[in-house]
Predict the structure.
Amino acid sequence: MNYGDKDELVKSLQELNELGFLFAGGGAGWTAADVFGDLIEKQGVNINFKEVRWRGPSDCFIIER
């Protein structure tokens, strides 16, 4: 995804969120859900988004953040 600055990145991610995009979470490291959550918090944006996590190969669940 190309973006010019953080504001533009947040806007693009918000558009994906509005389309129902699931942001990957859980596991090790800095996940897509963590990055999006951090960005919207720092930008002062108050929105919810969905995070998908896996317990196993065919076992996932979705949480709302």
